[in-house]
Each structure stands twice: as structure tokens, then as C-alpha cells.
Amino acid sequence: MKVVHYSDYLQLERILDSQQPESGLVGKPAHDEMLFIIIHQAYELWFKQIMYEVESVNGIMQQPSLNDNSPELQTVVHRLQRVVTILKVLVQQIDIMETMTPMDFLDFRDMLRPASGFQSWQFKALEARLGLQFQHRHGQEYYISQLRQEQIDLIKKVESERPLISLLNSWLERMPFLDIEAQWWDNYTNIYTESLSDNEKANLEGFHRVFDNIEQTERQLSARAGRAALFIMLYRGYPILQLPFQLLNVLLEIDEQLSTWRYRHMNMVHRMIGTRVGTGGSTGKEYLKGAVDKHYIFREIAQLTSFLVERRKLPALSQNMERRLGFDAGA
Known about the structure:
This protein is mostly helical. The chain has helices at 6-10, 12-16, 22-25, 33-61, 71-97, 102-106, 121-130, 149-160, 164-173, 177-180, 184-195, 203-211, 223-234, 239-273, 285-294, 299-302, 319-325.
């Protein structure tokens, strides 16, 4: 039987010897550079784990048939919930970074040029794997300009593959319930229209833009997928829709945590360098603010809350549909 030692298994010698502060190499040691290196190494390790989880989820979602009440869907939700938990840790790590003062950072900042967190190819690949498209990126003109060619090639490869949001779209389009309840959509449209107050009438235009079968190249969810997602949100109390609702909800949580991380990162950068240019040549806080405002990957799911109505107004489902949505769906 093979004997595995803790240090060998974790390759601790390689990991613990991988911090080489630039300030020490030039004979001007800056105490906080060690903290700076370790935190960013930890970020990259967590990015790797998140990518590992998302890639496994995409592999499951690529199947032509995925039972909405199956262990596989439970696995998808569980792994994405793990992603949310990891993202919360990434946000909390900023608290540690902020124990470093601006003067502490200035002790070694100029020695890092042109190295920058902007060169984190893993994070860019992760955004693409989730579904951030090039045309929706802030700073398109230089988002890969500071990367090595092999890193650019890797990101471009990820961008050429189907992201999670596209796989989600296909999964939602397969949901059969709206076909069975053909009259339901007309009833719901009327109920939603009547629920709008006078100063909400403009919402009706958005309602039809999202749910009518109009070709729209800028949207990542089709009208059919949008109607299916709305149905899941409205009737999530039925057993067979609980896991699908958890899936939609966890994607919103991922967006929320990514946004929180970007926002905290932006404020930390402003605290550290004010309005100065980043070490990688970006506009510093201004670039990060643009990403905070623009990089919402699952915004089309979040948008659906604009089109909900009170439970008491929901169209009644047929007895056959209620059986299908209950625990005896196979009966």
C-alpha cells in the first residue's frame, strides 16, 4: 500500500517556497508584500476551484435530457451553491487585504509594474465560462492586452464553447409544462396586464419584448426559456419545481457575490491608490466601476421579478398539471 505524506500530498514545499517578494530581491524589504502575494495566490487557487465546479456543472447540463427531479440536478445545484460559498470567502479576504495601509502598499507598489490583477486570465475565463460575452464586456479594447499569448488562446477557447447561461437556456426550453397548459400563458398575460398601475404601464412593453417570439440577438434567454423560468418562479412551491427554482436562485446569488466582490475590490483600490492609474495600465477605480455596472451575467433571470404577480392571482392549474408537479408525477 502506498504511503502518502501530508506535505507530499499537498506539495507544500512548492507552495510555501512560491512567495518571492520583489522588495526583498532588490534589498528594500517591504513587510506587507508577503501578505499581498499570499492573498492573490489564494484568490487564484479559489478561481481554479470555481472553474472546476462550473466546468463539471456545464458537463451535466450539456446532456440532451436532464430530469428536473433527478440526483444530477441536485448535483448541479449543490456545486453551484459551493461556488457561492467560495465567492463569499473571496469577498471576506478583502478584509485581510485592507489591514494594509496605502503607505504600506506604496513601499513596494512601483516594483510590481506592469504586473496587475488585471492579468488574471483565470477570472476572465471564469466569466466567459459562466456566460459573459465579449460584446458585454467593459473595456473590450484592452481586456486581453496584458496577457501572454497562451493565456489569450485559453480564454478564446473558453469563449468559443457553450457557457452555462446558454446551457440553461436549452434546459429551460425543454420544459414541457407550458405546452400542456396552452391556455395558461394567455391567462397570465391578462392577469399581469391588469395588475399594472398607471405609472407601471411601460412594463408591458418590456413584458412583450422578453416573452414574445421576436428575434433578439442581444438576449441570451429565448422567449420560451423566459416563460419557463417565470413559470418555475411562480409555482416553485410544487415539489418538482423546487430544484429548478433553487438552480435559478443560485445563479442570481453567483451574480450577487461577483458584484459584491467587484464593488469591494473597487473601493479597496480607491482607498489604496485614489485616482492613480493601475500598475497594469488600466484606469484603476474607473475601470473597476465600469465592470461593476456592466458585468451582470444572469441579469435576464433577475429581470423576471418585474413580471411576477401575487400568488392569489395566479391562474389555476388543471388537476392533471398539479399531479405532474407533485410527488406522484410518475403516476
